[in-house]
Here is the input.
Amino acid sequence: MILTIAIILSYLLGSIPTAYIYGRVYKGIDIREHGSGNVGATNVFRVLGKGPGIIVLLIDILKGVLAVAGVSTVLSLADILHYILLGFAVVAGHNWTIFLKFKGGKGVATSLGVLIGLTLKIPSIQIVLLITLGSWIVVFIITRLVSLASMIAAVILAIAMVATDQPLPLICLGSLFCVFVIFRHRPNIDRLLKGEEPKVPSLWPFSKHK
Here is the structure.
């Protein structure tokens, strides 16, 4: 019963549509009707600017951290499988939010939050976090393509889980997140192949927007 409650709480936490709420509060707009139409930080970044984009990004990351490290602690869940189920639930909530008719974001930021939360509970995967985040940063700096950086990082995540000899449940979670991210980026893949995927400027809030 406690695990079921934890999973539901994690799903609802992930379902909070941060980008949609911020668009409504900050500009009185429906973010789904602007830019790419995606309910995620990258679209907020493009439509509303760097400040709002970074705020939404951090909150979406925080959702993943709170689900894995917070909900599990409050409800005294300490098994690795529990962490994985909560991580899956919060990302599923972000991707298919109950508050927007089960249409949500792409889960990259929240997946990163889950990974951060897991490192707080399982220190051995800190190296996986560093490798995954590092790969995203390198690809983004080179290409300025968030979608490409996210998909490559997702693949690296799955590989890093295996390469660092993580427990099978963590390998399965990394592989599942990889599939989630690539599946949710299908429109981006099409634009990348056509050379039409828009680039974004530096995420550093004080740099000039070009």
About this structure: Confidence is low (pLDDT under 50) at residues 205-210. The two ends are 52 Å apart (CA to CA). DSSP finds ten helices and no strands in the chain.
